[in-house]
Write a structure and sequence with these properties.
heterotrimer; A mainly alpha; B mainly alpha; C mainly alpha; A: three-stranded mixed β-sheet; globular; B: mainly alpha; Helix Hairpins; 77% helix; elongated
């Protein structure tokens, strides 16, 4: 790895005292809606609930724009806004403030979060209109945005970690928003628990980083396990003759600027001391080992475990598909656009650490590409439109991790940006479709919606175009840049072994994943929007073919909720539903209300109209609040491509790369290639997208082709395997949950049989010994004891006079004793 | 002349001795507690005085703070016990509470 | 002891005692410890006067606690004594401790003690019991103890050095949260336990009534 060629200076900080307002506004909204929301909803109406929430989001967005304007006015390398509120904790060397910071990277994230967040709030007013707990939904959404803003704006790890956990909480609350449905509550719990595994790794990495920056710098002769020889640089500061003498905060002097050294929680201080070479910190971190493993690699890999949980990478991705149980706007905001990208953001934020460890880079890129490929193949055969998008999200997150793994940090981050737009469009489009089709999520029951829902169809097509990677839509630029950089990266290592082949291998798998992405996305488009509408008609025979027995055993058992995708009972025989008669009546009322009001029913979960038959009617376009948002986001998915037009096309570096450069100080070398190669790779990207598109069109357009059906039957075993997501959930069940339960059962058995037996035996033994003892006692000991007892009693009678029970007596004793001690001290000095 | 260390030590010693005397002579449990408070104050004065004249820094003062806190805790519990004794024996003579004696 | 005049008499009397002891110690101890290197006596300044007044208040109050037969006067004596100690802290440039002394002792402990006095006596009863016992032995022991402490205090050559006086509140705050963090947390735990314990002890009896 080549070092930075030009000397980087310390971060220049500009204070911006209003930054705290950005997260404050959503927090206010969350507090108002959670404390007073139910009252507002009853007395003033739902308008006020979402009015408050959206107003807060808008204010937050406007404040972010203000910060953006201030940042734009600064010179490129000084774009760092900082705002410290107060010191939260300072104990020993650990010290952190409640402080916010914006650099170009977090600025971009804040703009994404507040902009898309606001749009999704607007979308939710249409989607959740019939929800009885309307206030709760908006309170949670605002809470989520607040936590997410803390995550990206935190000036130190503590604030970031607070946000990191906060988004986990909000995600949990929103996934199990309809908590009366046990499956949805379980999905929320699953997300929470799986994330906990990741967070554990993250916090371990954090502690390790803190420790590696601090304690062991002291010359400790007894620290044998640490193979680092303290050779504290202070190259730039010869005045500090012996740095070991002082235990206080240390610092280095670089070109007249004081850089604090030592353990820190602060991103800026960490960046300064690591990036600026003359402090010697970066060099030291690189050579330090712990139990034979490079410490830095360990730190990066542990922190990436946190990213694996939060950003749904192999093998911790299992929670994300289940998280689709939440309302669709939630899936769009949290599980596509923002929260799941937190891991990518974290790796980009710590790019200077990752860039120093080729093993960590290889690890990130490998996990990313495996996830991308694996999830893309699962997406092939899913019928639930949201599940397709969920696996697509997992796959796209993998692509982002390829980017930040191979060192193309700006490209990974750019893909984060473009993905936020097109995936939000796709999710909200699917939400619009689900709403239009009366909470139907099965794509086999859709079709032909293009005529009925033109706006949704067109925006969905644009977003599909973008995700598939065709030029002039944003996905092309970001994905191609990532894959091209992966191909030209030859410096990665795999667990300490140099692996120059890893980059090209990542490229090959990545381009396959891209082909797959194009295929299943166009498949979902064609199945949903072309052909003729198949809703309402029973598809019993196809359901019978589904290997339901294997389909995630714990799912869909005993739920009476037809919008829970594959429920054969409710689909095939709606009349058999227990609430058929009242539900029909209710459905008619709802239908009349629906005729009066364009705003349509939200997912029904707790009252009677969960009955499709009675709630029929053809699909219809969604209200304006939804279509307007869709159009804006789809436009964004195209317009953001401007930010990433490559050097090859325009002759200057992409706008976003230039913008992000000061925030991503890591220098990673790539193979130099000719322009022709670059054109070739772009061509390959387009070709991959086109191939996927071609097959999807041939097989699924208008729903006429019988080929998919035949193929399915020919390769039924393989189809079943993929359809059931490679049985990963079942594998988890068998490998993690079952052993845990078995262990518990075994321990219970062990307790009941072995331990009890031992206890009983001990009891019996004790009884036997006691009987024996009794004999001895009675005839031998008693005599002695009685004698001794008499002696003791007499002695006690004498001594009792001392124990008066009065404190004064005791105090006399204590005082006399202390006098005696002093006296003895004087005497025998 | 400014008071020296000895002045404070003398005052503290007197305080301590008077507290000791109180504790030793009183039959009233509340008064006994007062004596204990006096003794604690005597030692606190010592702590702060040594801190000022000999040790420097803040260690003595920090200790004094902890002693004050513990004295407050002791007073609260002690007085609760006194109330309890009063309710049981209808007196707070410390000699009365000797049921454990026999 | 029906009149507070007795209390005043005690206070003045003991003030005389402490004054004597203070002056004596000031005269003697440097001579004993440092062999007369320091000036035996300086001019008697206003600060000295205040110091002696504060010391007299302290000792007088303590004497009232020890000797008064009415427990109410004892409590008042304790008030005077605690105030005096707070004054001594101020003299020792321990401003935070002085304020804490006033707030915790006088604001908390003393009020608590007064409550206990009120709750455990019938107010109407003239003879508010503060009987005592064993004067002779107690006086002897106390005197020996006092002598011992004084001997130690004056015999040991303390390495006196002058330290500056600066506001201590902020440094104490830092010290409590850094150097003394663990004791600090333990103290809070003890206070919590005390709170609960005191409530439980007192409450049980009320329920029994």
């Amino acid at each position: 790895m080549e070092h930075a060629t030009q000397q980087l200076g310390p971060t220049v900080v500009h204070s911006a005292s209003y930054l705290w307002l950005i997260p404050l506004f959503p927090a206010i909204g969350a507090v108002i809606n959670s404390l007073l929301g139910i009252r507002i909803q009853r007395t003033l109406g739902k308008k006020w609930n979402h009015g408050i929430a959206i107003a807060m989001m808008t204010l937050s967005f406007l404040t972010a724009l203000r910060a953006f304007a201030q940042m734009l006015a600064l010179p490129g390398n000084e774009r760092f806004l900082q705002n410290t509120l107060w010191n939260m904790l300072s104990a020993g060397q650990l010290r952190f403030d409640l402080a916010f910071a914006l650099d170009p990277l977090s600025m971009m994230m804040v703009l994404i979060i507040t902009f898309i967040g606001t749009l999704i709030h607007v979308f939710s007013t249409g989607y959740m209109a019939d929800e009885p707990d309307y206030w709760r939904f908006f309170a949670y959404l605002n809470l989520f945005v607040f936590a997410m803003l803390l995550l990206v704006m935190g000036d130190n790890f503590a604030v970031m970690f607070f946000g990191w956990e906060g988004v986990g909480l909000a995600s949990y609350l929103l996934i199990s928003f309809w908590y009366t449905d046990i499956e949805k509550a379980k999905a929320g719990m699953k997300a929470f628990v799986v994330n906990r595994f990741g967070d554990f790794g993250f916090i371990l990495g954090l502690f390790l980083l803190f420790w590696s920056l601090g304690g062991i710098w002291e010359p400790r002769p007894d620290a044998r396990s640490v193979s680092y020889v303290p050779e504290i640089g202070y190259k730039a500061n010869p005045a500090a003759s012996n740095p070991f003498e002082s235990t206080g905060p240390r610092s280095a002097d670089v070109h007249g600027q004081i850089i604090p050294l030592g353990p820190t929680m602060n991103f800026r201080e960490l960046r300064d001391q690591v990036v600026i070479e003359s402090t010697g910190v970066g060099e030291r971190l690189r050579h330090q080992t712990l139990w034979g493993v490079a410490l830095l690699t360990l730190v990066c890999m542990l922190m990436f475990v946190g990213a694996m949980g939060k950003s749904a990478q192999l093998p911790l991705y299992v929670w994300l598909p289940d998280a689709m149980a939440g309302p669709t706007p939630v899936s769009a905001l949290i599980h596509a656009a923002t929260m799941v990208t937190a891991g990518v953001y974290m790796v980009a934020r710590l790019s200077y650490l990752y860039a120093m460890s080729p093993t960590a880079m290889g690890w990130v890129a490998t996990v990313g590409v495996l996830t991308a490929f694996f999830a893309a193949t699962i997406g092939f055969f899913q019928y639930d439109i949201k599940k397709v998008l969920a696996y697509s999200t997992v796959s796209q997150l993998g692509i982002m991790f390829i980017g930040v793994g191979v060192g193309a940090y700006w490209a990974g981050t750019y893909h984060l940006l473009t993905h936020a737009f097109f995936k939000a469009t796709l999710f909200l489009g699917s939400g619009s479709v689900i709403l239009g089709c009366h909470h139907e999520q099965d794509m086999r029951k859709m079709g032909g919606l293009k005529k009925l829902m033109p706006v949704t169809a067109w925006t969905y097509l644009v977003a599909t175009w973008a995700i598939a990677g065709f030029p002039w839509a944003s996905g092309f630029y970001s994905k191609d840049e990532i894959l091209f950089k992966a191909f030209t990266q030859r410096g990665m290592e795999l667990f300490g072994t140099p692996a120059p082949w890893l980059g090209p291998a990542v490229f090959v798998l990545g381009i396959l994943a891209a082909t797959g992405t194009s295929f299943y996305m166009f498949r979902s488009y064609y199945m949903t929007f072309t052909g003729h509408y198949k809703g309402g008609a029973g598809h019993a025979e196809e359901h019978d073919e589904d290997p339901h027995a294997a389909h995630a055993a714990p799912h869909h058992v005993g739920t009476g909720h037809p919008h829970d995708d594959h429920d054969p009972v409710a689909h095939a025989a709606p009349a058999a539903h227990g609430h058929a008669a009242p539900a029909a009546a209710h459905g008619q009322v709802a239908h009349m209300a629906h005729a009066l009001d364009a705003v349509h029913a939200a997912p029904a979960h707790d009252d009677g109209h969960d009955d499709h038959g009675a709630h029929g009617g053809p699909p219809h376009e969604s209200p304006r609040s939804i279509t307007w948002v869709l159009v804006t986001l789809a436009a964004g998915a195209v317009i953001t491509s401007v930010l990433g037009i490559p050097l090859l096309w325009s002759g200057h570096a992409p706008i976003l790369e230039h913008w992000l450069a000061p925030a991503l100080p890591a220098e990673v070398t790539f193979l130099h290639t000719s322009h022709a190669t670059e054109w070739l790779f772009q061509g390959m990207g387009v070709a991959a997208a086109a191939i996927g598109w071609f097959f999807a069109m041939k097989l699924f357009k208008d729903g006429k082709s019988r080929v998919p059906h035949d193929l399915k039957h020919r390769f039924f075993g393989f189809w079943t395997l993929v359809y059931n997501k490679y049985y990963v959930d079942e594998a988890y069940h068998a490998l993690v949950i079952r052993p845990a339960l078995f262990l518990a059962a075994f321990l219970s058995w062990f307790d009941q049989h072995v331990i009890d037996w031992i206890v009983n035996f001990a009891g019996w033994l004790a009884r036997f010994v006691a009987a024996f003892d009794d004999a001895i006692d009675k005839y031998v000991v008693d005599g002695a004891v009685n004698g001794l007892g008499g002696l003791t009693r007499e002695g006690g009678r004498l001594l009792r006079r001392i124990e008066t029970g009065r404190i004064q007596t005791y105090l006399y004793g204590a005082a006399l004793g202390s006098l005696l001690v002093v006296l003895l001290n004087f005497l025998f000095r | 002349m400014i008071p020296t260390l000895s002045h404070y030590l003398a005052v503290a010693a007197l305080l301590f001795a008077l507290g000791l005397f109180t504790v030793l002579t009183r039959r009233n449990a509340v008064a006994v507690l007062m004596g204990v408070e006096l003794m604690l104050n005597g030692s606190n004065v010592n702590l702060v005085a040594f801190n000022k004249f000999v040790v420097g820094g803040l260690t003595g003062q920090a200790f004094t703070l902890f002693v004050v806190v513990l004295a407050a805790a002791e007073a609260a519990v002690g007085l609760a016990i006194v109330l309890s004794i009063f309710h049981t024996f209808k007196t707070i003579d410390v000699r009365a509470a000797d049921l454990m004696r026999e | 002891m029906r009149t507070p005049k007795k209390l005043i008499a005690w206070t003045v009397g003991s003030a005389a005692v402490i004054g004597a002891v203070g002056v004596l110690s000031a005269r003697l101890s440097p001579a004993l410890a440092a062999g007369g290197r320091r000036p035996i006596a300086g001019p008697f300044t206003l600060a000295d006067g205040i110091f002696y007044a504060v010391a007299a208040l302290t000792i007088g109050g303590a004497a009232a606690v020890a000797l008064s037969r009415n427990i109410l006067y004892s409590a008042l004596g304790l008030l005077a004594s605690l105030l005096g100690v707070a004054g001594l802290y101020a003299f020792l440039s321990a401003d935070f401790i002085a304020v804490a002394q006033v707030m915790i002792y006088i604001g908390g402990v003393l009020v608590l003690i007064l409550f206990a006095v009120m709750l455990t006596n019938r107010i109407g009863e003239v003879n508010i019991s503060n009987a005592s016992m064993g004067w002779a032995s107690a006086g002897l022991l106390s005197a020996v103890m006092l002598a011992m402490i004084l001997v130690v205090a004056f015999e040991v050559p303390w390495p006196v050095r002058s330290t500056g006086s600066a506001p201590t509140t902020a440094p104490i705050g830092h010290a409590l949260l850094q150097q003394w963090l663990l004791p600090f947390e333990l103290a809070s735990l003890i206070l919590l336990a005390t709170l609960i314990g005191a409530i439980i002890i007192a409450r049980k009896e009320i329920r029994a009534d």
